[in-house]
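Checklist before submission:
- one chain only
- standard amino acids only
- sequence pasted in full

Submission:
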Amino acid sequence: ELDTFTIVTTEANAAMRPLHDRMPVILAPGDYWAWLNGATAADQVQALVRPCPEAALAVYAVGRAVGNVRNEGAGLIQPV
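Returned file contents:
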């Protein structure tokens, strides 16, 4: 058994665009079932691959330490 995952990306919304041209797909809780149900039609799943609303995100500056994979801890996401 091998546990794996994939991060599915889409174009960036207006809040993320100043940082990068794409972002992870963030599903609304009401869309979880459609995403995970193997019987869902491909076009229905494809419709879920879209930028999330800007209001669903909190965008703020953090310290430079967040960019180093050797650093860990909740302090990395504290606003500066």
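Reviewer check: The chain has one domain: 9-77.
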